[in-house]
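Bumping my old thread because nobody answered last time. Still need a sequence for this structure:
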């Protein structure tokens, strides 16, 4: 198999919420594979800071200020991006939030906010970027799902509901648009080492010990671990892959627990 199958030279990739963390890591991976990167955020300060961080890595990106849940803003900015940068070839719906609250304590407003950002946002983005992809009869869309697309966990009911819905949205978009040469797939990250998890990624912390013992790979994911999946699903190599959720989780979902090597 030729490595050219994974070459993204000349492609334009919009990665929502990629000012930090896993989104930024995927965007860096796509850039290193040749893609022009476009990101968005609802904070100009975060956009400006991210542009500088990417520049330190030798990557020139374009940043746009808009909210993925604001349909009018999405319509305007998709048109602006395509006019200023060029057609969007790859869309990664990465922007999202989580609120950890037991169901009986969760406010309806918080429930609705999580679903709005984590499920309705990707729907709006896919609708308006996908419309142009249909006209061009080409495109790649990656929705950031989660292990919670498959399993439950205490205090994350809204997040799990949204990510479960996003899995099925992914499959339905893939079904509707495969005939237009558009591949819609998802990535489901496991537990990753990010700035947000730093306080609990210490030896002796109960949750850290749980993750190490529960993950067959016996470690937290590194942010770079997502790059291969993102490049694959953005490239020619995945031209006949439709409606698949690629779990990058060190084997958690495949296992009842870490196997003993003794």
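Sorry it took so long. Here it is:
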């Amino acid at each position: 198999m030729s490595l050219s199958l994974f070459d993204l030279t000349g492609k334009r990739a919009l990665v929502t919420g990629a000012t930090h963390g896993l989104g930024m890591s995927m965007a860096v991976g796509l850039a290193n594979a040749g893609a022009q990167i476009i990101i968005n955020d609802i904070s100009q300060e975060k956009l400006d800071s991210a542009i500088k961080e990417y520049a330190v890595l030798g990557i020139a990106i374009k940043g746009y200020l808009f909210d993925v849940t604001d349909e009018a803003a999405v319509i305007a900015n998709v048109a602006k991006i395509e006019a200023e940068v060029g057609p969007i070839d790859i869309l990664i719906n990465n922007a999202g939030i989580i609120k950890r609250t037991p169901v009986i304590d969760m406010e309806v407003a918080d429930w609705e906010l999580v679903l709005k950002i984590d499920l309705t946002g990707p729907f709006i983005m896919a609708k308006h970027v996908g419309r142009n992809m249909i006209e061009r009869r080409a495109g790649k869309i990656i929705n950031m799902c989660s292990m919670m697309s498959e399993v439950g966990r205490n205090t994350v009911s809204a997040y799990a509901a949204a990510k479960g819905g996003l899995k099925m949205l992914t499959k339905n978009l893939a079904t509707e648009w495969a005939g237009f040469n558009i591949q819609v797939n998802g990535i489901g990250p496991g537990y990753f080492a990010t700035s947000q998890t730093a306080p609990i990624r210490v030896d002796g912390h109960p949750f850290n010990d749980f993750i190490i013992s529960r993950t067959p790979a016996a470690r937290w994911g590194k942010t770079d671990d997502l790059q291969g999946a993102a490049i694959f699903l953005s490239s020619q190599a995945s031209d006949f892959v439709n409606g698949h959720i690629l779990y990058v989780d060190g084997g958690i979902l495949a296992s009842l627990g870490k196997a003993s090597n003794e």
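Strands lie at 12-16, 36-41, 61-65, 90-93, 139-144, 182-189, 245-248. Let me know if any region looks off to you.
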